[in-house]
User: Fold this.
Amino acid sequence: MSDPNQSGSPDKEPASEAQAAQTALGNTEKAEPTTGPGRSAPESKPTLGRLFLDNLWAANTFTVTLLSLVLAIVVGAILMIISDPEVLSTYSYITSRPSDALNSSWTLVSEAYANLFKGSIFDPEAFSGWLNGDNGWQAVLAPISETLTYTAPLVFTGLSVALAFRGGLFNIGAQGQATIGVIFAALAGFLLPLPPGLHLLVAVLAGALGGAVWGFIPGILKARTGAHEVINTIMLNYIATYFLTWLIVQNGVQDPTRTDAISRAVDNSAQLPRLLGDNLRVHAGILLAVLATWAVAWLLNRSTLGFELRAVGANPDAARTAGISVTRTYVLIMVFAGVLAGLGGSNMVLGSTASALTPLVVAQIGFDGILVALLGRVKPWGVLLAALLFGALQAGGNRMQSYSGISLELVTVLQALIVIFIAAPALVKAIFQLRAARAARLQTSLAKGW
Assistant:
């Protein structure tokens, strides 16, 4: 027969544990700071300035993008110093006379970036000359004019890549679609005898049609056969480039007064009107670019087709289960992307950049459109701002080359650095020790009040 004391021992252990926990809890409550008898201190609310600084230095999209620009500027300055033999030679005796190296480096970098600003945004000397009567107002607006001229085609190709990406497709073929668009637009511009207003409309629509055709091909191949759009669009880029080279030298297309590869000039009736007079190059293409940005934003965020497009891009299998035609959506995505890229190409020959077809008339706007789309986070208005930045870099880069002796290729390096840092946000966060974004905390504070 067991001992009664032993049988009751299991009941005593939980009681002792509960008593110990209650004692610890009581001690914890007593240890809390108080402002009065039995009252705990009220929770302090963060100030407006503190919340602003916390969220400014958090790893949000704005901060990462801004710091990526700063990093690109710093690395670009280092590359300028390394690539200049005279400045680099001062570092050979930096221990004895460090001021020579610092002063020469500062002079080189400051003048280069000052010329970048003057060539893309505002030139104080031109403004002073206008006030003194030495030059007209056109010189004051010339930097902005050049920036907007370079921006317009990049908006279209950037939107083309961004729209396809939102639908789950990687459109590498914006370059080829822009090339076919510029061909169609130019042919309509100098082969069709039409009145001024109608001629411009037909030429612009012809460029859009050319891009749509070149976008339809990889779209239908992707939808029907599953062929990867990256491979198809890369091959179509080559086909479009060599087709342009062949077409330029054909009878009826080549300029009869020239022996080199250049086509006839587009008629004036098919040219996009200039917005600030004949002396400045900015044209109505920038207005079409803003309109296209609004249209794409509305399509993605407000329309049923945009919802289907985003659903297919997020999960094609789930979209198919929900009754969305993935095949139809893929085709429409690439057609719309081709239309946008074709409009970008038509800007190159109907605007003020060129008036005739050449092998390099499209430049690199299709490939630059990929960078613009990535920099704009594949969002329509973000793409517009990114294109504006790239346009400013290209416009200012011309002045940097002319006045500072900085090669134009260095501007391309700056563009690449910006995209690299933005595409690697973890690197930017690590360099600047950014905190995690605190959107939830900010929303809570807003709900409770400052």
User: Anything to note?
Assistant: The two ends are 71 Å apart (CA to CA).
